[in-house]
TrEMBL record:
Domain HTH marR-type: 26-162
Domain of life: Bacteria
Annotated protein name in UniProt: HTH marR-type domain-containing protein
InterPro entries: HTH_MarR-typ, MarR/SlyA-like, WH-like_DNA-bd_sf, WH_DNA-bd_sf
Pfam families assigned to the protein according to its UniProt record, in alphabetical order: MarR_2
């Protein structure tokens, strides 16, 4: 196991970031991204629990809702965005509602649809914790992302503007 005092550049190179293997650049970049996401999630878990007193999965729900200013999201849409089963989501929403962080209400005209929204308490907690949470993400990424990983990640990103500007007729 690596010494936590080691500098990130002293750590062994990530095999997926080195290239030269069988994987195309997109899959190599995907492997780097998965490693980075795992590192961020590991660091965030304790900070989220300490600052917001919710699980990491509940935190992800709060983040989705926080990006919906003045509105909520249907539970089915939250499940789709997070790739979670609806039954698990129902439990997590109930926990968040019990903590006073979300509200649930029926969608007008659809008696089966449920919309979830942040409460003022949740907005305040997220606002208070956002600096610490952002620093945690940045720190975790800095520990696993060097120049080689950054370059590999670029393999996932489409060419800017140039690709988008091509019409269907112009594409090869």
């Amino acid at each position: 196991m690596a010494d936590p005092e080691e500098h990130p550049t002293d750590l062994p190179e990530c095999p997926s970031a080195q290239g030269g293997g069988l994987l195309p650049k997109e899959l190599r970049a995907w492997m780097v991204m998965l490693g980075a996401v795992g590192a961020v999630e590991q660091e965030l878990r304790s900070v989220v629990k300490e600052r917001l007193d919710v699980s990491h999965d509940e935190f992800l729900i709060l983040c989705l809702l926080a990006e919906q200013p003045g509105a909520g999201l249907r539970m089915t849409r939250i499940a789709e965005l997070l790739g979670r089963p609806k039954t698990r989501l129902t439990y997590q929403i109930a926990c968040l509602q019990h903590a006073g962080l979300v509200t649930r209400q029926s969608v007008c005209g659809d008696k089966r649809g449920i919309e979830v929204a942040l409460t003022d308490k949740a907005r305040r907690l997220l606002e208070e914790a956002s600096g610490t949470l952002a620093s945690t993400v940045t720190r975790a990424l800095a520990q696993v992302m060097g120049p080689d990983q950054h370059e590999a990640m670029c393999g996932l990103l489409p060419e800017p503007a140039k690709e988008a500007a091509l019409t269907e007729d112009e594409q090869p």
